[in-house]
């Protein structure tokens, strides 16, 4: 196969018998053969965009959802919404409008969107930790400034990561430097994977600290009441289980793809890249369920948005960031 005749795209050729590159062939004469993996990525992107667009609309529609906690949830939903749109655009530009420049922009857009999503997850984890560790001063202006600074940094770094392949850090003219995700270079995906591993370790450490705080609070309550009530035990167990599910879902979604980007070779069958990339996109599909739709404030806003009224008999409890 003549690698020099191909131009970049995110999807790969064939279903798994060819090279492991996710690439775009932009030869105008022959129509592209529809790849089922690309269809699944497009369907995943559509579901992601619809889910997160609803979350963004609810947060923008409801004046009550203006706290730092929901600003973070809104940032996550916005990043995932952009990622979903990027997957759809990638499919369109691969099979409908073939352009090397546009395809490169799409890849950069996807990198920036998914990087912002992962960074927003880290910011939410930090916010949860601060809400428990500094419970008395959490609602101060200092916390608001800290959260806005985190978000500005997260989006700024994500934008820079997305611009790297667009500004020249790609393998369009050096195919030997290509990674399993063409047109990203091996050094580029190594940087992205290393950043993910660092974020995952920080989140793991913070969630362990959160579990310690939760268990310590339960122990203090037990000492004050001379025993740990069943309700407190259930609440503590549920809280720890929820944290484990959140971190487990995040790790199961992204770790296989991040590891494969480091150890994979461009000559490996492309099915390996697809099989690890597709679950990574599912994380953006699961995020709104974990961080938004489970929140009772958002449930109430959805009720008002779609029903136009709120029945008083349906009770909702205001939640703190540690409950989200």
TrEMBL record:
Belongs to the G-protein coupled receptor 1 family. It is a multi-pass membrane protein. The keyword DNA-binding does not apply. This is G protein-coupled receptor 6. Keywords: Cell membrane, G-protein coupled receptor, Glycoprotein, Lipoprotein, Membrane, Palmitate, Phosphoprotein, Receptor, Transducer, Transmembrane, Transmembrane helix. The chain crosses the membrane at residues 69-97, 103-124, 145-169, 189-208, 240-259, 271-293. It comes from the Eukaryota. GO terms for cellular component: plasma membrane. It holds the Pfam family 7tm_1. It is found in: Cell membrane. Residues 51-291 form the G-protein coupled receptors family 1 profile domain. GO terms for molecular function: G protein-coupled receptor activity. Coiled coil: none annotated.
